Amino acid sequence: MILLFLLFILSAYGQEVLVLDVNKVVSLALEQNRKLKKLKREILSLEDIYRAEKRERFFPEIELLIDKESTHLLGKMLLLDIGNRLARIRSAKISLLIKKELLKELERQIKIKAVRLFADLYLAEKTAEVKREQMAIAYIRFDREREKAKRGLSDRVKVAEWERTYRSFRAELLSAQRRYNEILMEIKRFAGIDVQKYVEVDYSQLFSFQIQIEKTIDTEYLLNLMKDNYLLRIKDKEIAYFESKAKEQKKLFYPELYLYSGVYRNFKGENELVGYWNLILRIPLFDGKASFYRERSFLELKRAVEIEKKDISETIKKEILLASYEWEELMGEYESAVAFDTWAQEYLDLSRSNYELELAFDLGYAMSTKTLAEKKLAEVQFRILLLLMKLYALVGSDPFKVFKEIPPFLKDRRGEI
Questions:
Q1: What's the whole-model pTM score?
Q2: What is the tens place of the pLDDT at every residue in 89-100?
């Protein structure tokens, strides 16, 4: 029996515990994300279409033709093309590039989502800690009020009031614990991990960046880089795509020179193989204006995308210009949170130094206040982090650069009080 117990203990300690940090979750998510997998498959498909269009232009074609009188082995090759085939190749390439832009943006958004999930998890954990401390204080007050009521030193109203307070904090604690586990399971699902698997969470990367309190947003720098925004890049490619599709429709008066070569055998004649070759110049002259209407339809789609691009451009400008105001607001909140945290620490130190039995409640309140201050400070720090990551992504850059460098779109404050 003892041996079985020891084996159980050894197996429990020998079990590998998965430690999750932001980098680990992003790495797993990039492998498991279904949208990412779908996009990669679509890219492979478009790469094959692009190769097919290139090979179809000047590569020979060979056909076997059989009828009741003869059989032909025919080869055909395009020698000269100044028409729409080059446009078809370009259209296929642009479709491929659009999907690749979407893939890069999805990878950026996966990184941002991972950081947001970890931030939410940390805040849920801190919320549960605050509620646990508040509940413990309320329970002690409730329990003591009951004892006082038994000795006739209190009344039922005060007992009921403290029970209500205790039960309220307990309900809030259970809600915070439910929220924590919900986010943790979402992180596991996001990373493709079994939601029942035991994991440990490492928050260190969230706090590895330095807040540049003396800096502000350089909107001019960001405006100069907004052309690299993925939506604008895609719209530019869509405009080029519809231009190319319009050129594909221009078939009239565009000559094509073909070389035909082959051998045939006539079943009713001498039944010998006969070789031949020929050059054919093909010039389309009339198609009932069908190509004109097709061309015009793609040009209208191009104009529609140009209108959409202008609207997107203005939206991005607005986001960049508002970012400086959001930054200043967050810096104000950050300074306030730092001051609150400093006061909470001083209050906690004072409560510990003055600790006596009758002042135990003061110490409990000081501890819960300090935890609340830590939560508020972390919340502001995470909002600053996510703003910086959003701005990196907005100009088509890697959001994780925020952990490696001082963002180049931050500049020194000047002439400010």
A1: 0.85
A2: 999 999 999 999
